[in-house]
Amino acid sequence: MATAFLLVGLPAAGKTSRARVLERERPALRLTTDAWVLRLFGGANPAPERDVVEGLLLTTGLRAAALGVDVVLDFGFWSRDERDALRHVFGAAGVSCVVEHLVVEADVQRGRVARRWRERPQDTFPISDDELVEWRASFEAPDESELAGGPVPAPPAGQTWADWASGRWPGFDPTVGTFPRVTQDTPERV
C-alpha cells in the first residue's frame, strides 16, 4: 500500500526540506506547489491559478499513489477540511495518509522568510509581515487524532468529501484513484 504524506504548516516551517528528505528516504514522488507556481507564473503568487495547479498536482498524486507510488504533498494544508477531504479521498483509493505538522515560531518564520527572499528570490514569493500575521491567525493546526490517523469526520452538510475537494481545488479529479472493474464487455478506457 502506498502512503501519501500531507505536509502541514505555515510558510517557512520547513515543509519543503522535510519533503526532500521523504522523497529520498521512501523513495516518493514529491509535489511542491510553490515550485510549480513559480515555474508557471514567475514571481507572482496568483490565488485562483494556484488552486488549479494544486488540483492538478493532487490528481497526479492520487493516481501515482493508487498505482503504488508513495507521494509527498508539500502544500501547507492550512484547514482541517482540506486534510480531512484528502485523507478520505486517498483512503477510498486504498492509500494510507500520514499528516505531518511542521511548527515554526513567528520570529523564526520571519527570519527564514527574509533570508529566503534575500538569498534565493527566484525560489520564493515576497511575503509581508502583515501576511504572516494574517495567515498564522487563519491556520488550523491538526489535532492529535489527525496526526495519529484517527477517523475522518463527516463532510460538510450536503456534500461528499470528494465533491468538497473538487470544489476547493479546481482541476482535482478524486476519481483517478479508483479503478473500474474491467470485463470482456467493458470498453477500454484511455
UniProtKB/TrEMBL annotation:
Gene3D superfamilies: P-loop containing nucleotide triphosphate hydrolases (3.40.50.300). Residues 143-190 are annotated as: Disordered. InterPro entries: P-loop_NTPase (IPR027417). Pfam families: AAA_33. Residues 181-190 have a biased composition (Polar residues). This is AAA family ATPase. It comes from Kineococcus mangrovi. The lineage of its organism: Bacteria, Bacillati, Actinomycetota, Actinomycetes, Kineosporiales.
